[in-house]
TrEMBL record:
This is TonB-dependent receptor. It holds the Pfam family Plug. Keywords: Cell outer membrane, Ion transport, Iron, Iron transport, Membrane, Signal, TonB box, Transmembrane, Transmembrane beta strand, Transport. PROSITE patterns: TONB_DEPENDENT_REC_3. Its main location: membrane.
């Protein structure tokens, strides 16, 4: 622990030293004072609410921050705050962690709720670890990260937290056109055109890729309309995205990411991922407190599973529609009540097919046949009702609470023969095929999720303590994409109960916050050593998060945050032959820190950012370790005129050799997605 604190102290000291260089310069932008910063959030209750009045831990990223990063991957934005650790894989791929380890496995993505304007990107039971690239985060007006179990207003999915992308085509922002260029052929063109009622935005990106055969083409477009009809405010939103990506695989070998030439290589030049998505929604706000949000969604993805023997192609697709209904009733000046009903229907399909014989050992060739492995459809229906209330005890204290009752039904249809046979019904050698297809079935899950919290709020201080429950339903891939001898996946929803506490205060030129949490998670779904999906895992998660923002001079601000966490195994459901109870969960650094010094004067903004990742274990036995890293970034903005701005960024300023993601496999040992070397990007933005 001493080593960790010394390392982060060095980061903060570096930021302060950088800040002191400008200590005698005059301040020109008074709006940056801590006490003048206005923060609101809509995610918690679907209505705009003051941040201090909510018993939830929420990080907010505004359009200015997103723009300063010159974001080409959402990880660059979200990893700047305490408690968030997103691994950037190849191209636009990612793995999420919010007050959690980096969770892996077919359905682990179900532990995080990803949304656009409060509507989930994907339906219940059909998460994808990369689904955030289907959002238009590059031009978001704001991104909110909710930390901890789901609130009453959102059900299955937000077990560890959620991410809400807000207003990707905003009427309130100035219209602009922006061009960005960077190394390895990176180019992006984006624009926003709007008036008081309509807004249209688009982003077109090309990346040649630092690694061999690892580039991508990506296009995103959003449209928004605001109108009023007979006292009803209506917001209509459309988003469409398309990605064509060449995918790079892991490089293998202990510390192989430190070899710059090896880091450029791609062991899987044949790999690819093509994905497209379309979403449309309307929100009707009635003046009596009623809110109705109908929506429809579509996604289609095809990719080569280069990471498994046989390298089959997966094609998955869904159509879905639903409606969120909520009535906000202000009973008195002290009491408000929200009552709601959410309904969602989805048609989900998945096809896995291998077009040539498997290469490798006799066992692999016999048990992994060419042809179809899986071909199924699931009709999913989710119905949930909820009630939440907020009661003001006095002018400083209030109590919040509520409960959500949710039922999820899956109607599964197997379009192939069932069991451990190949596409033609032939048995495989060595005891049977790797792939096991269940018979047609109907599965349902019903669960109640309560919460209660106490909130304290006054002019310069706010705090809360919150006891909550979260859950996630088994994903369709965990139920119907079985292996080996498993014929039925009898799974229960994952559940997590715990307590959060927070205290924040603004004093003169400084704002700070302290947050703590402790969660116990049960029915953890995982694939055990027999390749069976089971739901009898137990884990424990606890942590402390510190954040600070302070004006050192009128021109210089320092921001810093530190998160200390322990994520441990509470039992061993046939995950290892060794005793792992009490061990750190894989891919869960104990310490994550960020520090930034920002200098701002008329026409110029300059910042240096440091990001620290502690060492962490790569396997349940805690015998394999990634050593961690510290990476610095330099960012600048020059306002050449009231309409014209120039951005120049240098990511990985000191050309650190590090891994974006480290992993361990019993077949290959340590393996990595290498981080980019020093990377320079420049943008020109013109506002109309």
């Amino acid at each position: 622990m001493t080593k960790h604190l010394k390392t982060f102290s060095l980061l903060v000291s570096s930021a302060l030293i950088y800040a002191s260089v400008f200590c005698n310069l005059a301040f020109s932008k008074e709006s940056n004072k801590a006490e003048d910063i206005e923060k609101i959030v809509v995610t918690n209750s679907r209505y705009a609410t003051e941040l201090g009045a909510i018993s939830r831990s929420i990080n907010i990223y505004d359009a200015t921050l997103i723009e300063q990063v010159q974001v080409d991957h959402i990880q660059q934005v979200l990893n700047q705050q305490a408690g968030v650790f997103i691994n950037r894989n190849s191209g636009q791929e990612m793995l999420l962690a919010i007050r959690s380890p980096v969770l892996t496995g077919a359905g682990a993505c179900g532990s995080f709720l990803t949304m656009e304007n409060g509507v989930p990107l994907r339906p219940t039971g059909f998460c994808n670890v990369n689904e955030l690239f289907e959002s238009h985060y590059e031009l978001a007006e704001r991104i909110e990260v909710i930390k901890g179990p789901s609130s009453v207003f959102y059900g299955s999915g937000g077990l560890h937290g959620g991410i809400n992308i807000i207003n990707t085509a905003a009427q309130s922002r100035s219209p602009f056109i922006k061009g960005t260029v960077g190394q390895w052929g990176y180019q992006q063109l984006s624009f926003l055109a709007n008036n008081d009622l309509n807004a249209l935005s688009a982003s077109i990106s090309h990346d040649g890729g630092y690694r061999d055969e690892s580039g991508f083409e990506q296009q995103k477009i959003s449209f928004s309309n605001l109108t009023e009809y007979q006292g009803v405010d209506i917001q209509s939103t459309i988003t469409a995205t398309n990605l064509n990506q060449e995918t790079a695989g892991y490089i293998v070998g202990k510390n192989s990411y430190k070899d710059r030439e090896l880091s450029k290589s791609n062991p899987n030049p044949e790999a690819y991922r093509d994905a497209k998505a379309f979403r449309i929604s309307q929100r009707y706000d009635f003046n009596n407190g009623l809110m109705i949000t109908p929506f429809a969604r579509y996604s289609d993805m095809e990719f080569l599973q280069h990471f498994v023997p046989g390298k089959p192609v997966e094609k998955n697709q869904h159509y879905s529609f639903g409606v969120q209904n909520q009535y906000h009733w202000i009973y008195s000046s002290n009491l408000s009540v929200d009552v709601g009903l959410d309904i969602e229907f989805a048609n989900i399909s998945l096809l896995e097919e291998q077009d040539k014989p498997t290469e490798g050992s006799a066992f692999l060739m016999a048990t992994i046949p060419e042809g179809k492995h899986y071909d199924y459809q699931v009709d999913a229906l989710t119905v949930a009702g909820f009630v939440g209330a907020n009661y003001a005890l006095n002018d400083k204290f209030s109590v919040t609470g509520g409960v959500r009752l949710e039922r999820i039904d899956y109607d599964y249809t197997n379009k192939m023969n069932a069991g451990r046979v190949d596409e033609d019904g032939n048995e495989c050698g060595f005891g049977g095929c790797r792939f096991s297809r269940p018979e047609n079935s109907d599965d349902n899950f019903t669960i109640a999720s309560p919460k209660i919290g106490l909130v304290y709020q006054e002019q310069n201080s706010a705090g809360f303590i919150n006891v909550s429950h979260g859950f996630r339903a088994p994903q369709t891939t965990e139920l119907y994409r079985l292996q080996r001898e498993q014929q039925v996946s009898d799974l229960a929803p994952e559940e997590m109960v715990g307590i959060d506490a927070s205290w924040s205060q603004t004093h003169d030129q400084m704002t700070y916050s302290i947050q703590a949490y402790w969660y116990e998670k049960s029915n953890v779904i995982l694939r055990d050593n027999d390749y069976f999906y089971v739901s009898d895992g137990e884990t424990e998660h606890k942590g402390l998060e510190l954040s600070l923002s302070s004006l050192i001079t009128n021109n210089v601000r320092v921001d810093a945050n530190l998160a200390y966490a322990r994520h441990i195994y509470a039992n061993n459901p046939n995950l290892s032959v060794e005793n792992i109870v009490g061990n750190d969960i894989s891919n869960a650094p104990n310490l994550i820190g960020n520090a930034a010094a920002i200098y701002q004067t008329e026409g110029l903004e300059l910042s240096i950012n440091a990001q620290y990742i502690d060492d962490y274990y790569l396997n349940p036995e805690n015998t394999s370790t990634y050593e961690g890293h510290t990476v610095f970034h330099l960012r600048s903005k020059i306002e050449a005129s009231p309409n014209l701005s120039l951005f120049i960024n240098i990511d990985n300023l000191f050309d650190k050799k590090y891994a974006e993601r480290a992993n361990y496999s019993s077949f290959t040992g340590e393996r990595y997605f290498p981080g980019l070397p020093r990377n320079i990007k420049a943008s020109v933005k013109y506002e109309f």
